[in-house]
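Deliverable D2.4 — example input (structure tokens):
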């Protein structure tokens, strides 16, 4: 039964690829409100709730086939099946080239695999599609740091923290010599 469901999912996804991915939902107004709330949050615990709500919106794929691809990739990543996750994310990005989260999750997968050069193009694409995606911004900063490119990481990290001052990565911001924290 399970294999039949998998086959049907693949067939549905393949036929959806032929039809093309619809435009991703426009969450601009909701995200505007969440960014305003996270910036006014009195502490990290309250801010975390707003950040979680942002992730819920980012993880909402354009349609059912793309949501299935994303969900399968996330499940595969959780259990360490990086080959399957990569396959699903490649299919998602091909099917929905204007959905930022497809690129962001593929970048995260490559980060987990330690393939840092493969991370940056996907994060750049995710950020081009969604410039305020703090997950993609912090992911880019962390990748640059891992690659020994700290000076390039700092402006990206500061951009993310300007959007959400409660990000844990804020601790990685380096202040110029002589400046107080």
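Example output (designed residues):
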């Amino acid at each position: 039964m399970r294999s039949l469901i998998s086959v049907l999912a693949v067939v549905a996804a393949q036929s959806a690829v032929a039809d093309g991915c619809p435009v991703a939902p426009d969450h601009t107004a909701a995200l505007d409100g969440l960014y305003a709330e996270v910036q006014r949050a009195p502490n990290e615990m309250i801010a975390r709730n707003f950040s979680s709500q942002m992730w819920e919106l980012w993880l909402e794929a354009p349609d059912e086939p793309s949501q299935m691809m994303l969900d399968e990739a996330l499940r595969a990543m959780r259990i360490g099946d990086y080959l399957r996750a990569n396959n699903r994310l490649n299919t998602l990005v091909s099917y929905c080239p204007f959905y930022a989260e497809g690129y962001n999750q593929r970048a995260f997968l490559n980060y987990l695999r330690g393939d840092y050069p493969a991370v940056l193009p996907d994060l750049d694409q995710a950020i081009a599609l969604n410039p305020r995606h703090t997950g993609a911004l912090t992911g880019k900063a962390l990748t640059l740091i891992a690659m020994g490119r700290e000076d390039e990481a700092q402006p990206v990290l500061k951009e993310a923290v300007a959007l959400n001052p409660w990000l844990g990565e804020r601790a990685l911001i380096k202040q110029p010599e002589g400046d107080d924290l």
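The chain has nine helices and no strands.
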